[in-house]
């Protein structure tokens, strides 16, 4: 496994004081630079809370979080984030939306226009740079949001159920698009999902969270080809992994046959 890029040591998070809700309990995890790690588990198990802690948007109640050995005390530099909702600004065209991180960072937006156009071309949105979000489908909007998260060449990309609201065909295509982007750029990616198949397709490693309070119950390195096409889902190896995780959720009482 690569040397630790992210280190979590005994991370717990409680909301509402001592008598409040314990969302995370004693999370210990190391993530190597360039890994694609999916956090897999049921709704309400603390996956998104842990992601927000990694982003510096929440502070752990106990334990420590570090990025390259430095404590995470706020949003790290070279961070990209994508959420379930694309959060595009309706009064900006797609190119302007992709350029927002440069604007927020106090950079000269014109310097990033070539990079933004390159990203849009990579995800098939070259011809929609000057369209407004209302003219785009949900999948196209989410592609634009991913481009926005990659504009500043993040070394760490955090994604919270970014494809959860999309239809199955669009979700499959965006899985392929994201996988190809990760192969080209190798940014460390932490991806929250409820989908077993999505997690297996995208990830180099899957970390399974228990129901609340979230604890890590399995940490599995996947032995699948680094470059994947949708046909990999039909292989015995892929199906073996999906059966394994489905059985794990059955033993936790989360899936009933």
Structure overview:
- With 257 residues, the chain is α/β, with parallel strands linked by helices.
- The protein has two domains: 4-78 and 155-251, P-loop containing nucleotide triphosphate hydrolases (Rossmann fold, 3-Layer(aba) Sandwich); 88-153, no CATH class.
- It has eight helices and ten strands.
- The strands form two sheets. A six-stranded mixed sheet has the order 6-7-8-3-9-10, with helices on both faces. The chain has a four-stranded antiparallel sheet with strand order 2-1-4-5, with helices on one face.
- A hairpin with a 5-residue loop joins strand 1 (4-15) and strand 2.
- Helix 5 packs parallel to helix 6 (168-185) and helix 7 crosses helix 8 (236-251).
CATH classification class of the largest domain: Alpha Beta
Helical fraction? 25-40%
Order of helices and strands: EEEHEEEHHHHEHEHEEH
Kindly state the mean pLDDT as a whole number? 91
> CATH homologous superfamily of the largest domain?
P-loop containing nucleotide triphosphate hydrolases
Beta-strand share of residues: 15-25%
Count of helical stretches: 8
Shape: globular
How is the main sheet built?
Answer: 6 strands, mixed
Find the structural class using helix and strand composition. Answer: alpha/beta
- The order of strands across the largest sheet is 6-7-8-3-9-10
Query: Which spans of ≥5 residues are poorly predicted at pLDDT below 50?
Result: none
The quaternary organization reads as single chain
Termini separation: 36 Å
Radius of gyration: 18 Å
């Amino acid at each position: 496994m690569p040397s630790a890029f992210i280190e979590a040591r005994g991370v717990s998070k409680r909301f509402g004081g001592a008598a409040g809700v314990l969302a995370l309990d004693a999370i210990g995890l190391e993530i190597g630079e360039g890994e694609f790690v999916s956090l897999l588990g049921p709704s309400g198990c603390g996956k998104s809370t842990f992601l927000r802690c990694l982003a510096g948007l929440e502070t752990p109640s106990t334990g420590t979080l570090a990025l390259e050995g430095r404590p995470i005390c706020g949003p790290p530099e070279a961070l990209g984030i994508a959420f379930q909702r694309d959060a595009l600004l309706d009064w900006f065209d797609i190119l302007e939306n992709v350029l927002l991180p440069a604007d927020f960072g106090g950079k000269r937006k014109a310097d990033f226009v070539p990079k933004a156009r390159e990203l849009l071309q990579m995800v098939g949105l070259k011809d929609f740079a000057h369209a407004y979000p209302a003219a785009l489908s949900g999948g196209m909007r989410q592609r634009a949001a991913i481009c926005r998260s990659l504009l500043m060449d993040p070394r760490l990309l955090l994604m919270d159920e970014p494809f959860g609201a999309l239809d199955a065909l669009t979700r499959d295509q965006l899985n392929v698009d994201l996988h190809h982007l990760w192969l080209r750029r190798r940014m460390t990616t932490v991806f929250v999902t409820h989908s077993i198949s999505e997690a297996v397709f995208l990830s180099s490693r899957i970390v399974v969270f228990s129901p609340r309070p979230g604890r890590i119950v399995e940490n599995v390195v996947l032995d699948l080809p680094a470059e994947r096409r949708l046909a990999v889902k039909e292989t015995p190896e892929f199906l073996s992994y999906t059966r394994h995780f489905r059985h794990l959720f059955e033993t936790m009482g989360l899936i009933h046959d």
